[in-house]
Amino acid sequence: MKEVLIEVKDLSVQYTSEGKEIKAVNNISFQVNKGETLGIVGETGAGKTTTALAIMRLIQTPPGKIRNGSVQFDGKDLLQEKESVLRKVRGNKISMIFQDPMTSLNPVYTVGDQIAEVIWLHEKVSKTEARKKAGSILELVGIPAERGSEYPHEFSGGMKQRVGIAIALACNPQLLIADEPTTALDVTIQAQVLRLMTNLKEKLNTSMILITHDLGVVSEVCDKVAIMYAGEIVEYGTLEEIFRNPSHPYTQGLFNSIPNMNKKVRRLTPIVGLMPDPTEIPSGCSFHPRCPKAMKECKSMKPGNIQLNGEHKVSCHLFDETVVRGRVETNEPSTP
Amino acid sequence: MSQALLEVNNLVKHFTTGTQTVKAVDGISLSINQSETLGLVGESGCGKSTTGRLTLRLIESTSGEINFEGQNINDFNKRNMKKMRKEMQMIFQDPYASLDPRQTIGETIMRPLMVHQIGKKKDRYNQVLELMEKVGLDPRWVNRFPHELDGGRRQRVGIARALAVNPKYIVCDEPVSALDVSIQAQVLNLMQDIQEEFNLTYLFISHDLSVVKHVSDRIAVMYLGKIVELAEAEELFHNTQHPYTKALLSAVPVPTLEEKPHKIVLEGDVPSPKNPPSGCRFHTRCPFAEARCKVEEPELREVGSEHFVACHLV
Ligand SMILES: Nc1ncnc2c1ncn2[C@@H]1O[C@H](COP(=O)(O)OP(=O)(O)OP(=O)(O)O)[C@@H](O)[C@H]1O
Ligand SMILES: Nc1ncnc2c1ncn2[C@@H]1O[C@H](COP(=O)(O)OP(=O)(O)O)[C@@H](O)[C@H]1O
Ligand code: SF4
Ligand SMILES: [Mg+2]
Ligand SMILES: [Mg+2]
């Protein structure tokens, strides 16, 4: 049995905007085991970033508020602890990388000084010691140590993102949360960054939550996958389970929407419609207005989390025998 | 063999800022056939958008020839160019930045009809509604403003605006890069439909190789202002010749559990186009570079039927 590193339970986050409630994350639960990478996949507005920020308790209040839930880590519920405790966890035991590499770097300090400062703050070492370590960390991400004396603007996007990773890993965190770390990068640079993340993860046995909208990236680095739609996890499973047997109609729709380099199709099969307005999430199954397989029940009843084989879980009425059987029965009288 | 609608020869664009010169496009030649989609791929800053704009004369070239339907449009005066503009349109990556926030959707699509005096005044409103329907926009949105629309709908407005003048050639500069995958597929299908219906010719610019392969008949790969390989789409993917193209294709994460080809991870970053490397511009990152690659610039040569490569080793 794998050891659980972090367990998120029934997490709900809301924002208030122009007097309206935005239900960004609704009752989601998942866990990450030691040394494993969980991929959180979803489209814009699905609630991925909000989930990441909530785990670190970095949701800005107002407009945001964590409504419910717990985040068990290291024997503590991070949602209940004092801010001083969280400050010690952030950047130390859990660190984060953002999509825009610029946001994690301060333009007025040299790259080397910024890494050294993180080390100096979190490990009780001298400043000279911290500087030396900063140099070796830069080398670890493939940047010559002497370039530590340069400023962020002198670095390319890929280098900045690697520095972000260097800073995030400077204190040997147990968990790394990476929010779309390669979305802004070119593919050849993305390949460099992904290789770096996988190598470091293996060497240091770091666990990772990788947030992305790219199923290709997921297939290369993740062990487990959670598919998010309108603030909910609609399907969860191992990489094998999700890729061999995508079960939720939304997951299937995602796979059919992307052109695949290895397969030639004349036309793509998009998901119809648009993401729902987060202030008016549809009743029942929130995917029902766009779902090609929706049944009468989908409009009124929220599907539960249904366990399939292994670790595979899906939240859809098609897999609920009572609904499917009930449907056959209600349909019968009308057939002549 | 179908006929070339657009042909550029030895096209060059150097931007000079202060004392520095950026060699954004540095001598490229290509042709696009009637009703064809030519894909243009390459990493950020390699000169794709500049190439697209040059073919429309939205920016002036430093040197080179641009032939559209057999006429060198580089020689055209303002008046003739304005007439030509009707035949050549553009769809942009960021549908928000390319729409005027103060104009309604209807006004935005109406504008090119007025500028080019297409149709009678009283019919134009109906033309706008027809165009909206064509691109899958509910005509009820006609009086809305761009900020009220999501990215996918905004991109449909951009497409309707380009279609309004009934062009022959459209430069599509990363038209789906800013969209979510489910919306991306909707827009790609729409672009395919209107291409068939109106017999359009596309220059399709993208950094997403899966998308480019899906839409293109032929594909040109750019690196630092040069074309390094050009071939029919399937040929380019299955009989890849240039080391850069090989690395680029292998770097794409394909969403499958099947065995993947070995990744060629290139070291370092793309060098600056202000000071491109000598000889073959790719030699600083090429795993196969030889001594002559540093000094001698390889020419784009035909190595197979309609397959062009610029590499000393091929
Ligand atoms: N108006 C300009 N003045 C100066 N330099 C420019 C100008 N426009 C483009 N460049 C430079 O020319 C080079 C090519 O730019 P271009 O926009 O064509 O690249 P691209 O391939 O479209 O990149 P991306 O994928 O990032 O859109 C870049 O180095 C860019 O900085
Ligand atoms: N600061 C904020 N104020 C108001 N609404 C927000 C804020 N941040 C996010 N949201 C909303 O919450 C929902 C989820 O957003 P987010 O977590 O950023 O999604 P993702 O990262 O999956 O794109 C969206 O509807 C978004 O508009
Ligand atoms: S619950 Fe119903 S609407 Fe929702 S995904 Fe399943 S079949 Fe479709
Ligand atoms: Mg996000
Ligand atoms: Mg561009």
Question: How would you portray this structure in words?
Answer:
The complex is a heterodimer of chains A (336) and B (314). Chain A has 336 residues and is an alpha/beta fold. Among the domains of chain A are: 79 residues; 80 residues, no CATH class. Helix content of chain A is 33%, strand content 23%. The C terminus of chain A is likely disordered. In chain B, 32% of the residues lie in helices and 24% in strands. Chain B has an 8-stranded mixed sheet with strand order 6-7-8-3-9-10-12-11, with helices on both faces. In chain B, a hairpin with a 2-residue loop joins strand 11 and strand 12. In chain B, helix 4 crosses helix 5. The longest helix of chain B has 18 residues. Chain B is globular. The chains are: A alpha/beta (336), B alpha/beta (314). Chains A and B meet through helix 5, helix 6, helix 7, helix 8 and helix 9 of A and helix 6, helix 7 and helix 9 of B. The structure holds adenosine-5'-triphosphate, adenosine-5'-diphosphate, iron/sulfur cluster and magnesium ion (2 copies). Adenosine-5'-triphosphate (ATP) binds next to strand 1, strand 2 and helix 1 of chain B.
Helical fraction of chain A: 25-40%
Radius of gyration of chain B: 20 Å
Helix content of chain B: 25-40%
CATH domain topology of chain B: Rossmann fold
Show unreliable segments of chain A: 329-336
Count every beta strand of chain B, where a strand is a DSSP E run of 2 or more residues: 12
Radius of gyration of chain A: 22 Å
- Strand order within the widest sheet of chain A? 6-7-8-3-9-10-12-11
- List SSEs of chain A in N-to-C order: EEEHEEHEHHHEHEHEEHHHEEH
Number of separate helices of chain A? 11
Q: What's the β-strand tally of chain A?
A: 12
Distance between the termini of chain A: 54 Å
Task: Assess the beta-strand content of chain A as a share of residues.
Answer: 15-25%
How are the strands ordered across the major sheet of chain B? 6-7-8-3-9-10-12-11
User: Which architecture of chain B would the CATH scheme give at its second level?
Assistant: 3-Layer(aba) Sandwich
Estimate the global geometry of chain B from the Cα principal axes: globular
Domain ABC transporter (chain A): 6-255
Subcellular location (chain A): Cell membrane
Pfam families (chain A): ABC_tran, oligo_HPY
Membrane topology (chain A): Peripheral membrane protein
